Amino acid sequence: MTTRMRSEIGEQPTALRATLDALLPRVDEVRRLGDQTRQLLFIARGTSDNAAVYGRYLTEARTGRLATLAAPSIATTYRRKLDLDGVLAVALSQSGRTEEIVETLTWAADCGARTVAITNGGPESPLAQAADLALCTEAGEEKAVPATKTYTTALAALAVLALGLGADVEPADLQRVPDAVEKLIHDPGDLDAVVEGLAGKPGVVVSGRGMAFSTALELALKLKEACYMHAMGLSYADLLHGPIAVVDADTPAILVAAGEGPTLPGTIALAERVTGAGAAAYGVGGGTGLAAVSTASLNGPDLPEWVAPLGLIVPGQLLTEALARRLGIDPDAPRGLKKVTQTD
């Protein structure tokens, strides 16, 4: 029996094409709003917060604008007013109905920010209604609790946002993403080997850096949600500052990297260090260089670094779904979770 999660993973090429068709014509709208601002503030929780990490790296590395992640509790719990003049506040919510995120975006506007919503909830959702500009993704209804297609389409919307903010990238790269994702769905790499390598382990460290850091965080979250693993998502720079001590024969590492870019050599070196210490290192992406020094590896997308995260997460999603089934867990309905989470 095919799980909902697996079916929705397979729907991502179609969802990405529809989202790009809807949002790429709106680059000029983003540009006009962005011209009124100097820096960005990303507002999100959970999976959307991992997407926001990609938005932050992409914005700073490719547009030259300072970008930060918001602490919603400043607005909703401490109720502190800040000077957000010149700020573009970007709120992400798959449903567009998470009250804390809607409230924080409204607070940002009251503090002087211009506002953007990224949501799969449609233009009538509370978040879209609260924003100056709503970039609504076209993932369709997502029934499985672990987010898959709503995550990758949110990344696509962030890539469109970056184009509107003047990113020094090739816009045509985005059009290659759906085909690259489709290829990964059909050929994810050594999936069975990685599943078996993780099946008896209580925990795992998932690490990447730069653009790929968001993928490491999201894969760690998925393994927690759907497989009940103690999965730690870390930048490899932070991992090397101490937590690498937990990597051993019982705690393998999953290392994530684009097939090009300045963080790839460091990821390869980390894989060599992990395996040299007697632990397993499972590569995700990183081309032949990372695969050659990994215990087993999953394929990455044939995409430039700036859009690679849209594909890098896909083999991780497939890994999560397959590992959950291997462990006897229903990945569609993890314990204790709902599709829409409300926080105070």
UniProtKB/TrEMBL annotation:
Keywords noted in UniProt: Aminotransferase, Repeat, Transferase
A Pfam family per the record: SIS
TM regions (residue ranges): none
UniProt GO BP: carbohydrate derivative metabolic process
GO molecular function, one term: glutamine-fructose-6-phosphate transaminase (isomerizing) activity
The EC number(s) this enzyme carries: 2.6.1.16
InterPro entries assigned: GlmS/AgaS_SIS, GlmS/FrlB_SIS, SIS_dom, SIS_dom_sf
Domain SIS: 29-171, 194-329
Leading EC class: transferase
Signal peptide (from-to): none
Taxonomy, superkingdom: Bacteria
Protein name, UniProt field: Glucosamine--fructose-6-phosphate aminotransferase (Isomerizing)
Species this chain originates from: Thermocatellispora tengchongensis
